[in-house]
């Protein structure tokens, strides 16, 4: 099916600055860059079974923003049988783009935290608009929700051995088996 | 066993502005009110098994800050078989203090910042009791998957956890956990009023 909306699934962490960047970038995409066409996935509400939070990750391609190497955003969807369309690895993307997050705030949307989140949001919007452009070849296949509680409490950094990725550019990945992104089209 | 650390789990949501309020309350607790005594946790790293996070919720009492009527924070803990040592329910605190959540999501407006302080003050008082009262008892818990309530909002989480509201509005005791006390502390109040700045314009924030 063609893509009419994208679903943002930000890292649900609270301790590290990458989580705050992911959260702010999500708001910028949803409120400023692609309003009306961006859904915000809430991890605890998804686990809770809030209908709209379950449906949005089934009906639209997910952009996961992982705040650190533990990749809880990607992993939490994987544990429910869902593969994201795109994965951003925030620390790697920051380094590649020359942002030093070490002095940033995880509490306030200011300084480098805000500047870098705007940068991330712009890149997401660029990919998202391409996926939603009229007549484009991107086809989204609706996944089936699966409960895989037997796989809980196991983690591999960057989903190594669990999910394979194509590296689009440093910090931006497409899981193998998911449709190619606009950047990959000839 | 004696408690030397309390973990705080703000609801972890993102879509509703109240999630930014509970998140801010968590930072106020950890950074301003009880540094070194409170540690923040979120549920995705527990479910996915991030080293250290599982042990943190097993070995320390958890105070959960539920943001809205979906009660996702409590449900998330129930999914990993952890009983909260205390639960704060933001809608009840809001109705008591009359500080509205606000509408801004990246960072709350002044009224939401005040509500975050209300939550932090109550949670800090509860945490201090757990940390300081030698009669407060806590037994380690063990994380295990509990599919009851997974992707199923029909589960009555209030009933499952046996919540009972304490004398302080918005603060709930969980069945089977040691009763907590909440004594108002003027020093906490002073700190919140004098040392935790409120920002009308986000441009004023200095890093």
List keywords for this structure.
heterodimer, A: 186 residues, alpha/beta, 6 helices, 6 strands, 37% helix, 14% strand, B: 207 residues, 8 helices, 11% strand
How are the SSEs ordered, and which strands pair?
The complex is a heterodimer of chains A (186) and B (207).
Chain A: E1 6-10, H1 17-33, E2 38-40, H2 43-48, H3 51-59, E3 62-66, H4 72-78, E4 86-89, H5 90-96, H6 111-132, E5 165-169, E6 172-175
Parallel strand pairs in A: 1-2, 1-3, 3-4
Antiparallel strand pairs in A: 4-6, 5-6
Helix pairs in contact in A: 1-6
Chain B: E1 6-10, H1 17-33, E2 38-40, H2 43-47, H3 53-59, E3 62-66, H4 72-79, E4 86-89, H5 90-97, H6 110-132, H7 157-161, E5 164-165, E6 171-173, H8 186-195
Parallel strand pairs in B: 1-2, 1-3, 3-4
Antiparallel strand pairs in B: 4-6, 5-6
Which residues of chain A form runs of ≥5 with pLDDT under 50? none
- The helix-strand sequence of chain B is EHEHHEHEHHHEEH
Classify the oligomer: heterodimer
Form type of chain A: globular
Mean model confidence by pLDDT of chain A: 95
Count up the domains of chain B.
Answer: 1
In short:
The complex is a heterodimer of chains A (186) and B (207). Chain A is α/β, with parallel strands linked by helices and 186 residues long.
Describe this structure in words.
The complex is a heterodimer of chains A (about 190) and B (about 210). With about 190 residues, chain A is of the alpha/beta class. Chain A has one domain (about 5-185). Helices cover about 35% and strands about 15% of the residues of chain A. Chain A has a six-stranded mixed sheet, sandwiched between helices. By secondary structure, chain B is of the alpha/beta class. Chain B has one domain. Chain B has helices at about 15-35, 45, 55-60, 70-80, 90-95, 110-130, 155-160, 185-195, and strands spanning about 5-10, 40, 60-65, 85-90, 165, 170-175. In chain B, strand 1, helix 1 and strand 2 (about 40) form a beta-alpha-beta unit. In chain B, helix 1 (about 15-35) crosses helix 6 (about 110-130). The radius of gyration of chain B is 16 Å and the shape is globular. The termini of chain B are far apart. Classes of the chains: A alpha/beta (about 190), B alpha/beta (about 210). At the A-B interface, helix 1, helix 2, helix 3, helix 4 and helix 6 of A face helix 1, helix 2 and helix 4 of B.
């Amino acid at each position: 099916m063609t893509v009419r909306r994208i679903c943002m699934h930000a890292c649900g962490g609270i301790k590290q600055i990458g989580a705050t960047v992911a959260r702010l970038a999500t708001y910028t995409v949803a409120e400023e860059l692609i309003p009306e066409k961006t859904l915000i996935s809430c991890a605890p509400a998804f686990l809770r079974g809030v209908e709209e939070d379950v449906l949005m990750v089934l009906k639209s391609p997910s952009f996961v923003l992982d705040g650190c190497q533990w990749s809880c955003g990607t992993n939490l969807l994987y544990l429910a049988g869902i593969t994201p369309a795109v994965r951003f690895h925030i620390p790697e993307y920051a380094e590649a783009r020359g942002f030093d997050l070490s002095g940033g705030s995880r509490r306030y949307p200011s300084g480098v935290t805000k500047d870098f989140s705007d940068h991330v949001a712009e890149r997401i919007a660029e990919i998202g608009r391409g996926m939603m452009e009229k007549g484009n070849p991107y086809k989204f296949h609706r996944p089936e929700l699966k409960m895989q509680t037997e796989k809980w409490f196991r983690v591999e950094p960057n989903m190594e051995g669990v999910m394979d990725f194509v590296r689009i550019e440093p910090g931006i990945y497409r899981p193998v088996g998911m449709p190619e992104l606009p950047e990959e089209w000839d | 066993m004696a408690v030397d650390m309390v973990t705080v789990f703000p609801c972890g949501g993102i879509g509703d502005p109240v999630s930014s309020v509970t998140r801010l309350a968590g930072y106020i607790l950890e950074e301003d009110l009880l540094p070194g005594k409170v540690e923040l946790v979120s549920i995705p790293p527990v479910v996915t098994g991030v080293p250290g996070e599982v042990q943190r919720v097993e070995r320390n009492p958890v105070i959960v800050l539920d943001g809205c009527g979906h009660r996702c924070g409590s449900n998330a803990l129930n999914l990993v078989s952890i009983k909260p040592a205390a639960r704060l329910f933001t809608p009840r605190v809001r109705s008591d203090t009359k500080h509205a959540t606000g509408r801004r999501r990246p960072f709350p407006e002044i009224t939401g910042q005040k509500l975050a302080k209300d939550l932090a003050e109550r949670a800090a008082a509860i945490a201090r009791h757990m940390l300081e009262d030698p009669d407060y008892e806590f037994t380690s818990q063990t994380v295990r998957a509990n599919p009851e309530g997974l992707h199923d909002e029909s589960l009555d989480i209030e009933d499952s956890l046996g919540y009972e509201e304490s004398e302080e509005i918005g603060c709930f005791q969980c069945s089977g956990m040691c009763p907590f006390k909440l004594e108002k502390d003027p020093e906490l109040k002073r700190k919140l009023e004098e040392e935790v700045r409120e920002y009308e314009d986000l441009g004023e924030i200095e890093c």
